[in-house]
Amino acid sequence: LSNKGFNECMNNSLTKSSHTDLIEEISADHQVELLNPLSKDLNGMRQSLLFSGLENIAYNINRKNTNLKLYEFGKTYHLNKQYNENRKLILLACGQQKAESWNNKNNKVDLFWMKEQIEHILIRLGITKMKGKAVKNSYLNYGFCFAVKKNTVATFGSVKKKMLKAFDVKSEVLYA
What we know:
Layout: E1 7-8, E2 14-15, E3 44-45, H1 50-61, E4 68-80, E5 82-94, H2 111-124, E6 131-135, E7 140-148, E8 151-159, H3 161-166, E9 174-175
Parallel strand pairs: 1-4
Antiparallel strand pairs: 2-3, 4-5, 5-9, 6-7, 7-8, 8-9
């Protein structure tokens, strides 16, 4: 991913437990909350890497860095009768595909560009027999996924405006 122009980010696993209200697929009942939190902003363990990723996007855009391609390998935490940790990978992108120069056209990142990035990752992992289909969820405008034998291995799309507004992001953000 770094070779393809992405920058790695590493975020704290502690986050606002109220973020779970933004995504319908995440249950507040499965939130791992801290008994003695440091602050209201760090009172739960993250159930999705999307929240901290959007905080990174907002931080960079506020500092006039608008062409972003970020990835993070991290864990999510869930309480389903017992505590579970899941390893995840997130890709986030906004702005232009490449830095502006005299010999580059300004091409914005779009769904087809993100699909290409995901396909490269899956092929590199040896996953070649995958099927793509549209999916509906509460946080993506246009959601698509790749599945292998009815198991979803990747979901991607454009993040909904409602979600972006919660993090004060005004540009389109692609998620995988």
